[in-house]
Specification:
single chain; 486 residues; alpha/beta; TIM Barrel; CBS-domain; 2 domains; eight-stranded parallel beta barrel; three-stranded mixed sheet; 35% helix; binds xanthosine-5'-monophosphate
Length: 486
């Protein structure tokens, strides 16, 4: 660049296209939208059933959203704008929400009071506790045993001592039979010495039937990811014992210090590590060649609906442009590293474009922040409901100490995000349903049966500003501008 002179910096610029500049050209198709399979790789070792991942933001993903989205087939990435203990607790909640065999069983000692047992059940929203002494199962105490009992009694005074148990390797079908035969709701699994090894509950068996499309780990628990700073090895190690995916959460990954800190994390943890945010070919190439064991790329800088990075710094890489860059690196090196296109997705069409450019899935903040399961506050403005949504680099989010290293005020001196409201949408299932149906329709137009098929078959075209205008409803009086179209 320098030899070619400064004029070439103007003359030879790349066009950093955005989702708004591109459309998907309809192609020859032999597939109906309902036949389109949108399951995909979220990371190298984890598959999800819909290609949607919720952003690690404190108005988007805490345990409730992570549970909801995993049950619907996607993946939630817990935010890190909290203490390590809080993030660990969120992750535990997701993992405990459902499991065929609960390994991390909450137990009680027989000398604890009934009051303590009641508090424990309420805190974890469970209806019973195995009673354990020196690792051995000595009884079980359920809501029914304690409901009207004197709270100062001891657990051993109210517990059921004759517990129906099964060996640790019991299959679900056998467990179902035992639960039915003995008319009990919980089946503790024990080894030959009577030590508690797990728990199977009716509730979990029923849940599994209710969410057949859920994204699960090998134990049948919901898949879960968590964001960590590259400089917080302690947090990464703790979370890696619980979650399936760690996301290195920095706004600019192509940075020497970030690379060395991430290398250490990848070496020390035993789960898939996604790195980002990545914006250029060179950043992805360096990440692929200089770091061993990257399990996914989070791609796009500055396109998020709450971002002001590009506005204030002029630095950034729109998600559509960045995805194509990174996808070429993956292709050139024959790597199987999935790309998560992150930021600026306003609907299924944008997701279809991101996937056409080589992404495996998309990460979304805005559309999920609108849902009941997102943590932001719900407020009414002029008779309509809205939810709070803020950038993790917004002044108020930065005021919480853990966002300081992502968009560090002391070093940068400016906020890189805003805080506002998005229209309330209702349940997350509505967003997933609309996004899935829309994406299947787009892929049907492109003639693609699966996401890898779309990588091969998609043809995109650029659209002019007047074309974008024509693409929206025009020359017609609409009843009222819907808040959905913000
Ligand atoms: P959407 O468009 O879904 O984008 O709202 C969500 C993504 O935006 C990124 N993010 C930020 N980017 N300043 C930024 O420049 C911020 O304060 C900020 N907070 C979130 C992040 O990648 C997220 O997934």
């Amino acid at each position: 660049m320098a030899e070619a002179g400064f004029r070439s910096r103007v003359r030879d610029t790349d066009v950093a296209v955005t989702f708004r500049d591109l459309i998907l050209l309809p192609g020859w198709t032999e597939v109906e939208p309902s036949q389109v399979d949108i399951s995909t790789q979220a990371t190298k070792s984890h598959r999800i059933n819909v290609p949607f991942i919720s952003s690690p933001m404190d108005t988007v993903t805490e345990s409730e959203m992570a549970v909801a989205i995993a049950r619907l087939g996607g993946l939630g990435i817990l935010h890190r704008n909290c203490t390590v203990e809080e993030e660990v607790e969120m992750a535990r909640k997701v993992k405990r929400a459902e499991a065929l065999v609960i390994k991390d069983v909450i137990t009680i000692a027989s000398a604890e009071t009934v009051k303590y047992a009641m508090d424990l059940m309420q805190k974890h929203n469970i209806s019973g506790l195995p009673v354990v002494e020196a690792e051995k199962l000595v009884g079980i105490v359920t809501g029914r045993d304690v409901r009207f009992a004197d709270p100062s009694l001891l657990t051993k005074d109210v517990m059921t001592k004759k517990v129906v148990t099964a060996p640790s390797d019991t299959k679900i079908e056998e467990a179902k039979e035992l639960l039915h035969k003995h008319r009990v709701e919980k089946l503790p699994l024990v080894d030959k010495e009577g030590r508690l090894k797990g728990l199977i509950t009716i509730k979990d068996i029923l849940q599994r039937g209710r969410f057949p499309n859920a994204a699960r780990d090998e134990q049948g628990q919901l898949l879960c990811g968590a964001a960590v700073s590259p400089f917080d090895l302690k947090r990464a190690k703790k979370l890696s014992e619980i979650v399936d995916v760690l996301v290195i959460d920095v706004s600019h990954f192509h940075n020497a210090n970030v690379f060395s800190a991430t290398r250490k994390i990848i070496e020390e943890v035993d789960v898939d590590v996604v790195v980002g945010s990545i914006g250029t070919y060179k950043a992805a190439e360096d990440a692929l060649t200089k770091l061993e064991g990257v399990a996914g790329f989070r791609v796009g800088i500055g396109s998020g609906s709450i971002c002001t990075t590009m506005e204030s710094t002029k630095a950034g890489s729109p998600t559509a442009y960045a995805t194509a860059q990174v996808a070429d690196v993956v292709k050139t090196y024959g790597a199987k590293t999935p790309i998560i296109a992150d930021g600026g997705i306003r609907g299924p069409g944008d997701a279809a474009v991101a996937l056409s450019l080589g992404a495996s899935c998309v990460m979304i903040g805005n559309l999920f922040a609108r849902c009941r399961e997102a943590p932001g506050t719900l407020i009414a403005i002029g008779g309509r409901y809205y939810k709070q949504y803020r950038g993790m680099g917004s002044p108020s989010a930065m005021a919480k100490r853990f966002s300081l290293d992502r968009y560090a005020m002391p070093s940068k001196g400016i906020p890189e995000g805003v805080e506002g409201w998005v229209p309330f949408k209702g349940e997350t299932s509505v967003v997933i349903q609309e996004m899935s149906a829309g994406l299947q329709a787009s892929m049907g137009y492109a003639g693609a049966r699966t996401i890898p098929d779309l990588w091969d078959k998609a043809h995109l075209a650029s659209i002019t500003e007047s074309g974008s205008e024509e693409a929206r409803p025009h020359d017609v009086l609409l009843p009222s501008e819907s808040p959905e179209r913000v």
